[in-house]
Write a structure and sequence with these properties.
It is a single chain. By secondary structure, the protein is an alpha/beta fold. The protein has 7 helices and 6 strands; from the N terminus they run H-E-H-E-H-E-E-H-E-H-E-H-H. Helix 2 packs across helix 7 and helix 4 packs across helix 7. The radius of gyration is 25 Å and the shape is globular. About 35% of the residues are buried.
């Protein structure tokens, strides 16, 4: 009887030890997968172009670009967060990008780039509006960073989805940035500048100010980003 109890105690101890060891192994593997996921996770940085004293381009009716950029950027941020994409707004109000003690002699473009570079695994989508001397020009066009192979892929995903959803007659092609687009030209992460439309075109200028159309633009940009994430990462 005593021997039987000793055997049961020994077996219980062995079972407990093996179970604890197995649980530790599982937890270690789970932690490793979690760490890997965090390392690969994209942090979307959304830059609403211009702001504050910098109004950006001016529409045919006097509307300032900076406000439209911010509105679309905020809607994109909302769609991204609902989709589970970690997101950051470079600006969430009408101001240039400076901290309280920053050197104001530096362009806010430098500050925006500093902010983008401060975020690990970042991906940049900068929201802007276009302008041209001929009023007939219209439609989304995207500039992309020439510094990596993924930027043009992201640009194509966004433009193609927008053409399907909103602008089926749009024949524009995306282009690599030159040094006139400082952030894109200096970017070291996948980066695009989405010129959503032309404020010099009367019809498109009105659409760009429309809340529903802004949501449709933001949603199309988000769909393009989701397709990029699914296929390229």
């Amino acid at each position: 009887m005593i021997m039987r109890k000793l055997i049961i105690i020994c077996l219980t101890f062995v079972f407990t030890f093996v179970s604890c060891f197995a649980i530790n192994v599982i937890l270690e593997k789970t932690a490793s997968v979690s760490d890997f996921s965090k390392e690969k996770r994209i942090n979307l940085v959304i830059d609403a172009g211009h702001g504050g004293a910098d109004a950006g381009t001016i529409g045919v009716d006097g509307t300032k670009e900076k406000g439209i950029n911010l509105s679309i950027a905020q809607k994109l941020y909302d769609f991204a967060m609902v989709s589970g994409v970690s997101s950051f707004l470079v600006r969430d109000g009408d101001y240039l990008v400076y901290g309280e003690n920053d050197d104001k002699t530096r362009s806010d473009l430098y500050k925006r780039l500093d902010y983008i570079n401060s975020i690990n695994n970042s991906l940049l989508i900068s929201i802007h509006q276009n302008h041209f001397e001929e009023e007939s020009e219209w439609g989304m066009q995207i500039w992309y960073s020439p510094n990596d192979s993924k930027s043009p892929i992201l640009a194509d995903k966004i433009l193609n989805i927008t053409k399907q959803n909103l602008q089926p007659e749009n024949k524009r092609l995306n282009k690599p940035s030159d040094n006139s687009y400082y952030i894109l030209y200096k970017a070291s992460v996948p980066s695009v500048m989405v010129e959503c439309g032309f404020m010099s075109n009367t019809e498109e200028n009105l659409k760009l100010q429309n809340e529903k159309y802004q949501k449709e633009l933001a949603y199309s940009i988000m769909l393009g980003l989701n397709e990029y994430i699914t296929e390229e990462l």
